[in-house]
Amino acid sequence: MCEMDLKKAYLLDFYGDVLTERKKEVLDMYYNEDLSLAEIAEQIGISRQGVRDLIKKAEEEIFFLEEKLGLAQKMSALRRHSENMLNLAKTAPLPKEVMLEVEEIAKIIK
Predict the structure, then answer these.
(1) Which of 12, 46, 79, 89 would you label with 96, given CA atoms 20 to 30 Å apart?
(2) Contact of 29 with 35, CB cutoff 8 Å
(3) What is the pTM for the complete model shown?
(4) Contact 75/14 with Cβ under 8 angstroms?
């Protein structure tokens, strides 16, 4: 899977629930199950071009949502900062209860 496809699959995780059930299902089959357009068309009973159109429309929607809301980008940054915080906390002399709290926060964010 190419980097752009990974990004689309990641965005599907964030915004899939706001898509119609059909669009979400098609994107899931295409990006997460790695089915071809023909395989998806056969499973849902529409043409290959119909599947392609659904994928394009759904992709436009999730990219629009990410552009406006930025949730996936914010979550990536939060995870990155959480990992940095945990690494710094491991090297600093912190009280045990503070270290436990830092570890708990890092677990929640992952």
Answers:
(1) 79
(2) yes
(3) 0.77
(4) yes
Q: Pull the structure tokens for residue 109.
A: 């964010």
16, 29, 67 from 51: Cα distances, Å: 17, 11, 24
**Which residues fall within 8 angstroms of residue 57, CB to CB, at 6 or more apart?**
23
The SS3 call for residue 35 is coil
End-to-end CA distance of the chain: 23
- The pLDDT tens digits of the residues spanning 68-109 come to 999 999 999 988 988 888 888 888 888 888 888 888 888 888
Contact 9, 62 (CB under 8 A): no
